[in-house]
Every structure is written in C-alpha cells, then in structure tokens.
Amino acid sequence: MPPTLHRRRCFTADVSLPPILSYGAAVTDARAALVDIEQSDGRVAVRVLAAGSTTVAVVERVRGPKLHPHIPIGTRERQHLRMMLDDIPVHLDPGPGRYSRHSYRVVVEHEGHSYVYRPKTPDTSRLTRDGWRLGDFTITTKGELDADWHEEAAPEPVDVAIGYALGAAFGAGADFFLVSMLNLVDQADPGH
C-alpha cells in the first residue's frame, strides 16, 4: 500500500470570471480565483474561492480497490470512485487508462453539462464542457498542477474546481499508442 500523502497547495489561478461573479464594477477584467488542492491517500479535495463564494469538488476512492501506483487517486475503476460538487453527487466515468489516449479520458456529468478531461499530449490533458475547450492541465516538473485557460473560454468556479480535481486525481497526459506498446514490450523483455 502506498504511503499516506497529504499535500496542500494554494495558489492563484488567472481565471476570467463571468460578469456576475466579478469583484468590482469592471466586468472585463480577469479576476483571480484562489485554488486550494488537498490530496491524501484516496482523496482529492479542491476548493475554489472566487467572488466571495466557494465551490468544492471532491474525488475519493471507496470500497478498497486494487491500487495502481501510477494513478494519483489509486484506481480508475468507476465502482471504486465517487465525486461530489458542493456536496452533490455527480456522475464520474473514468476510462480504463490502458494503451490508447482515448482510454484515459474521464467524463463528468453535472447539472446538464458534460465535462470531458482527456489527454492532449504525453504531458497535458484538456478539459472541455459540452464540447467547448476550457483549458489544458499539465503536471509541472515540481509536481504541481498547472492550468492554461483558453483565452475565449469563460470558466466558472465550478469548471475550475472540476478541472483541478480531475487533474489531481488522474494526472495529466498520456503516451501515444505506439509508445505505450514499445514500453510494454520493453518491460516484458527479460534481457532488460
């Protein structure tokens, strides 16, 4: 069993908030959201503070699945995972994460919206809402989750919370199919 991990990261994310969520009278200004990510063994909690309100997304492991050390939350098995947004259960459907990039996608259904978090490159995953690009997530060399919000997107606090929660729970990016197959062959070769 992996050791219990507890990390807190607070940082400011540049997020353009819709006018009704802005702090002041200038509606076109980019406003900052405070994002707090807390990770522990089997649980990721993200709190987004913007415009005086807080949005909380939690992804947690339940019912003791077989753990996989390469998955931050420990599993991609849907029956062993639960996601809540502001204490309301949401539909979470992670792919199995095998050999193709498509298998690493994670789908979240919340309040009539479909969020898809899928690998874009070996190091980056993209978050979309109803097919529209919101932002790209990358794990930095320091192990921090970095978001690059699309300049035409207007992510709301719930979008920010979902993106960071999925990134912290499932990581970012995936290798191409051919690279995955070569790695598998290399691992199976007893001469290495």
Key attributes of the depicted protein:
192 residues, mainly beta, eleven-stranded antiparallel sheet, 2 helices, globular
Strand order of the largest sheet: 1-2-3-4-5-6-7-8-9-10-11
Looking at the structure, what is the overall shape?
globular
| Beta fraction | 35-45%
Low-pLDDT residue spans? 1-31
Helix/strand class: mainly beta
| Mean model confidence by pLDDT | 78
How many domains?
1
Proportion in helices: 10-25%
Distance between the termini: 26 Å
Radius of gyration: 17 Å
Describe what this molecule looks like in 3D:
This protein has 192 residues and is mainly β. The protein has one domain. The chain contains 2 helices and 11 strands. The chain has helices spanning 157-170, 177-188, and strands spanning 7-15, 31-40, 43-50, 53-61, 81-85, 88-94, 106-110, 113-119, 124-129, 132-139, 145-149. The protein has an 11-stranded antiparallel beta sheet with strand order 1-2-3-4-5-6-7-8-9-10-11, with helices on one face. Mean pLDDT is 78; it is low at 1-31.
